[in-house]
Amino acid sequence: MPTPPRALTVAGSDSGGGAGIQADLKTMLALGTHGMSVLTAVTAQNSLGVQGAWELPAEAVRAQFRSVVDDIGVQAVKTGMLSSAALVETVAALLADLDVPVVIDPVGVSKHGDPLLAESALDAVRTKLLPTATVATPNLDEVAQLTGVHVREEADLRRAAAAVLDHGPRWALVKGGHLTADTAAGEAVDLLTDGREEHWLRAPRHDNRHTHGTGCTLASAIAAQLAKGDTVPQAAAAAKEYVTGAIAAGFRLGAGIGPVDHGWRLRG
Ligand SMILES: Nc1ncnc2c1ncn2[C@@H]1O[C@H](COP(=O)(O)OP(=O)(O)OP(=O)(O)O)[C@@H](O)[C@H]1O
Ligand SMILES: Cc1ncc(CO)c(N)n1
Prior knowledge:
Layout lengths: L5 E9 L5 H11 L3 E13 L2 E7 L2 H15 L3 E4 L5 H12 L5 E3 L17 H8 L5 E2 L3 H8 L9 H9 L5 E5 L5 H4 L2 E7 L4 E7 L9 H14 L4 H17 L20
Parallel strand pairs: 1-2, 1-4, 4-5, 5-6, 6-7
Antiparallel strand pairs: 2-3, 7-8, 8-9
Helix pairs in contact: 1-8, 2-3, 3-4, 5-6, 8-9
The chain binds adenosine-5'-triphosphate (ATP) and 4-amino-5-hydroxymethyl-2-methylpyrimidine (HMH).
Adenosine-5'-triphosphate binds next to strand 8, helix 8 and helix 9.
Pathway: Cofactor biosynthesis; thiamine diphosphate biosynthesis; 4-amino-2-methyl-5-diphosphomethylpyrimidine from 5-amino-1-(5-phospho-D-ribosyl)imidazole: step 3/3
GO biological process, one term: thiamine biosynthetic process
Keywords: ATP-binding, Kinase, Nucleotide-binding, Thiamine biosynthesis, Transferase
C-alpha cells in the first residue's frame, strides 16, 4: 500500500456540513489526500446561521495536534475558525515549530455575519498567526478587519494583498468573492502574490446562492495540493478550479444558504 499524502485541518465544526472541519475533510478526500482534524470549537449551524458556539480548552487543541503530528505525520496544515485569542496563540505556537506548508484562513465571521473569532483575538492573528503562514487567504471583510484596507473594486486587491503581506505570510491570496457582480464583471477574481509574482485567479461567477463553505473549501484544497507537492501557485490554481466546480454544483438545502458540493468531481 502506498503512503497517502496527509493534510491536517485545525478548525471548528459546522454541524451543517458545508463549512469548517466537515468541508475541509471532504475536500481533502476529494483531492486524494488523507485528511486529519484538530477541533477548536463546536458550532450549532445550518443554512440560516450559527445558533450556538462552544470553544474547546487549549489543552484539548494541543493534545489533538500532538497526537496526529507526532505519530501519523502531516505534509500540510490548514487553519480555520480559532474562536479566541487563547486558541490563536496556542495554534500559532504549535505551527511555529512545524516545518511544513501552512495555509491560514483567518476566519472572522460566518456568511451570515455571526462572529467566529473574538475581536480581542485580532491582534494575535496579526502578530502571531499570520507570520506562520505559507499562504494567508482572507476574504474582503477579513482584509478590512486585519489591515484597515477596504476593497471596492478589483484594482484595490493589490493594495489589500500588500497590507496582508506586511504581517508576515509568504504569500497572500485575497479572495474577491465578495465583490459585487457589477464591479467584478461576471467573474470571481482572487489575487495571489508573494510581493514579487502576481497570479490573478479568475473563474466564472456562478449565480448560485448556495455558497456556504466556499472559503474553507478553497483553503483546505490549497493545503491538500501542497501536501501532494504542488508549489503555492500550482496549489492555488488547482484549488480555485475545485471550489468553482463546488459552487456551480451547490446544493439547495435548508431554507437559507445551502452548502457547496464537495463531491462534484466524484459524481463525474
Ligand atoms: N458566486 C461565485 N461564483 C464563483 N466563485 C465564487 C463565488 N463566490 C465566491 N467565489 C470564489 O470562492 C472562493 C472563496 O471566496 P469567498 O470570498 O466566498 O470566501 P469566504 O467569504 O471566506 O467564504 P466563507 O463564507 O466560507 O467564509 C474564492 O475563490 C471566490 O472568488
Ligand atoms: C465552523 C465554521 N468555520 C468556518 C466558517 C466560515 O464561514 C463557518 N461558517 N463555520
